[in-house]
Fold this protein.
Amino acid sequence: MTEPSRRAQSVAIVTAAFGQNLVFATITTFLLLYLVQYVGLSTGGIAVVTVVLTVARIVDAIADPVVGSLVDMTRTRWGKLRPFILFSAAPVAVLSILLFAVPDVDEPAQLWYFAIVYLAWGLVYAACDVPLWGLIGSAFPERDLRARTIGAVRAFGAIALGLATLGLPYLAHALSLAPETTGTGWSRAVAIVAVLGMGLFLLAFFVPRERAVASDPLTFRQLFAALFANRPLLLVLAGSVLGSGRYLVQSGGAVFVVIAYDDETVFTIVGAGIIAGMVIASFTTPLLLRRVAGRTLILFSGVAGAAVYVAMYLVGFADLAVLTAFIFGTGLLLGVFLVSQTTMIADAVDAAEARTGVRNDGISFATLTFVTKVMSALAVLIFGFFVVAAGYREGVEVTASMQHTVWVAMTLVPAASCLLSVVPFVFYRLDESTPASTQ
């Protein structure tokens, strides 16, 4: 059988990632809305759901390196990554549908149903997410093609988020077959997205080819020892965690616009600004990486990001058009960071393989998904702290002091985070004998 061209493999991975992101964006954006609006949980029930979401996020983060280790210990005729893609697609689709099909029973039973299905969904999703990122590093040894593929995956991931955010409410309404949107309408809409998205995801199994693995499977102990010995990779991860403030706009933007403008629909404008910035940066950063080292782009995005956030704080949020322009700028710089970060992780895996003869795509790229979840969780935690400090809650009279406190969380905290995040990258070297300018 003729091996698919490099371009065909790249297109397949990007399309697969788009389908996967469409499902992920749907679940993370609308699940709480569905539970509150259409399942009709009580205040106590919503509190339980919040606890479940928090616990599940912790479990998911822990599961990622475990899944990565299992990937690296796998040997089949399809490789070590693609079997996980094949066998995780259907469970993710089914569990996604079940999350939006809570039965009409008493509330305790509904909460148990949700907790079990959501925890299972998180674990199975890890089994599809980790190998997809690892496949990018394995399928494309050419740094230029790999960078372009990563950029396209990031760009279409942002597009999937935009399509889900803007389109799903209309699809759910249309499928409700009633004047008002219903829970059944949401169930039908999510079913369509889950089947379509994970169907596209299977392209990552059928088209791409993995790099041959020469070494025998390693034990958990050997895999984790190799991971912690990969200093460049650890520096990328440390810089990423310190840059968690970059996610504050996404995590707290919807609440901020209510406090600042008393209109939650404004977030559509603000969200469009950051998504547009990320899409443009995701397509253009691979071109920059041909001439500029990823480390240099990361350092630039951190310093420039800090400057943009400080300027945004000084200008204020009175003019929505100006605010959206600033948000677009932060989206551009975030896109540069994400593409460069992922490329540098792939480079660190290549360098470790050249040095040790062992290639551990699974556990190495599991750290990427692990860190992404940690960054998101820290951003939510930080923003929540500032909201509590401001004294905001539903129904309270919003004061100028309250707005200023939350505005600091949206601007000065990300600025400080951007500056902190560049520190580990200053010390990033793939080879201690190689000048920093070429890294």
Observations:
- The chain has a mean pLDDT of 87.
- DSSP finds 15 helices and no strands in the chain.
- The CA atoms of residues 106 and 181 lie 22 Å apart.
- The radius of gyration is 22 Å.
